[in-house]
Amino acid sequence: MNTIDKTTDEVLRLAAEHFKVRRDQLTPDDDFFKKLGINSLQALDLLTRIEQHFQIELPDYELQGVSDFRTLAQRIQSRL
Amino acid sequence: MLDLRQYNSLGEALRAALERWPDEICLIEADRDRENTRLTYRQFKEQALPLASALQNAGLKDGTRAAIIMTNQSKWLISAYAIFFCGGVLVPLDYKLSAAEQLQLLAHSHAEFLVIEYHLWRAVTQAEQFKNLTSRAVLVTEAPPNADLAGAHRWEDFRVAAEPTFIPRKRSDAACIVYSSGTGGRPKGCVLTHENYLEQCVALTSLYPFWPGVRYLSILPTNHAIDFMVGFIGPFTCGATVVHLRTLRPEFIREAFTKYKITYMALVPMVLKNLERGLRQRFADLPPGKRKLLNALIATNRALTRRRAHLKISRALLPQVHNAFGGELRALFVGGAFTEPETLQFFYDLGIPVGNGYGCTEAGTVITVNDLKPFRGDTVGKPLPGMEVKITNPGAEGIGEVAVRSRTLMSHYLDDPEMTAETIVDGWLLTGDLGRLDSSGHLQLFGRKKNMIVTEEGKNIYPEDVETYFAGLAVKEFCVFAANYLWPARTMVGEQLVLVLHPETGQEITKELAAEVAERNRRLLNYKRIGGYLAWDRDFPLTASLKIKRAELAEQIRQNRDRSAVVPL
User: What is the pLDDT of residues B441-489, one digit of tens each?
Assistant: First the structure.
């Protein structure tokens, strides 16, 4: 099973790939809306990519109030 | 459709619809690529009446207020019908509000019953204000087996087999209390009557009719005024089908179009722009030859539909585009916030008309909508039938505040006669929006007179509601404004909030203070965040009861600072 650090790292990698930015430009505490310049729909797109990678299902509401990669990774970790 | 003039209440009209089209499909609930629910009007009735019976046994009677806090799903509609059947007043609350905000509005509305999804209920029970919840009964949907429901009932089990008694209501009775703002300050609970909704439904369906076989794709939550009307009352009173999608993810929206052969869909500008972005990308990825051909076909379609939409021609010219939308799409509706004309034109040129509308909860949802005769991307359309629109105190260019008079106007703000009197003057609703009526009767919007912003997700954000989150900041005083209220701008897109900070004498806005502001801002939901802060060095003008005189302060700021003084966050 993944550790939270590994999960966070994988989330950052997936986000970098999905939004075509360099991995080393992203940190766990980044506000992804601001850092990536995306809206909530684009963030949901990333969630789909994350689901496929971790083979879990995250309802849309899991993203409610989440704006940084660390918290997102915690939500994922709780479902692994 | 039903002749709604014959009915006095939403409950009565919906009840007639369930009898009229028993074998038509009224409701499908899909989650991603799964279908959770498919109900005929008869089956919908069979689900709703035992619930109504149990609600009546628990004391829900005419005038009792019952709130619903749910995402976009079938149990919302079933619960709402059961409440209307019992003569109750529905309080639809936004599931995206925080639990504390939901509890605040539950208290303000005096809702005696609450229907809520399990994950939302868990958040509510963990909020500090939960101890103040006084609802008589709470029904929780989709709770896992053995879940601790903190005294609530399981929605799925809250059933009584006995036939409930239908409770008639008068047209002038309250149907819903809809909050248009006020979670942080003064709650604005719009009391909308059965007449408001029935009249609105007649007007809307006269322009965009529904009938059995029409499939409406619902992606907005039903607490959203647009979805309540065009994703519930409208289709149901016409025997049409509502397809609920429990996710907003673009790939499943695309799938739903083709899987369910969607006829209509309502969305907010953000979703429409997302669809546009996806299509533009797909067009850009075409080989040069195919792209050239596509552009030529789009130009041909534009020429042939200049005067009015021709669905058959557009579908024949651009079959791949239309097939990607299921092949039966007649129109998209967009509202809730301002949509850029270029986006509307993009879809129209593809043969997908977008009924661009404008409205507000206080006016009973929609005020104007594009009737497509011809299509105009540069306006928000003409007033709906039965809706009088005038421009008050117009300036030299004919721009002034938009005022509306209609049978769809709300009755009043709940428990706030003062605010009601400020908003509805001599029967005219003052919208706070600035507009102009052109020579063909179309309304064009130019900005706002009121201190608020609307996001592209269709969320109305009031500065007073956001201020709560900055309480206790180490400054002498602070205040939040809409930037376009401080510095009027002729635009309704890209709006943002500004935090005005007045430090103590000799105090500076240090890095630590700026970091504290940024941290608190970050804790806000992304669409509620302020765009920047502004340092101010004079005492705020206050009323005798020590409230900020916002208009006066705004004027002072306007005279002494410009937008460049805002420090972005």
Answer: 999 998 888 888 888 877 788 888 888 889 889 899 999 999 999 998 8
Partners of B249 on chain A (C-beta within 8 Å) are 44-45, 47-48, 60
Statement: A4-77 belongs to CATH 1.10.3660.10: no
Please indicate whether the domains covering B4-260 and B453-568 agree at the CATH topology level: no
Give, in words, the CATH class of B453-568. alpha beta
Q: Across the interface, which of B96, B249, B457 has its CB nearest the CB of A45?
A: B249
Contact B103, B80 (CB under 8 A): no
Residue among B79, B54, B60 nearest B232 (CA): B79
Burial (CB count <10 Å: 0-12, 13-18, 19+), residue B562: exposed
CATH number of B4-260: 3.40.50.12780
Surface-to-core class of residue B8, CB atoms within 10 Å of its CB (0-12 exposed, 13-18 middle, 19+ buried): middle
Q: Which of A31, A41, A67 is opposite residue B250, by nearest beta carbon? A: A41
**Distance (Å, whole) CA B196 – CA B4:** 12
Q: Give A8-22 pLDDT, tens digit per residue.
A: 999 999 999 999 999
ipTM of the complex: 0.86
Are B271 and A41 in contact (CB < 8 Å)?
Answer: yes
Mutate to test the interface with A, among B116, B117, B249, B267 (most CBs of A within 10 A): B249
Closest partner CB to A67 (pick from B247, B249, B526): B526
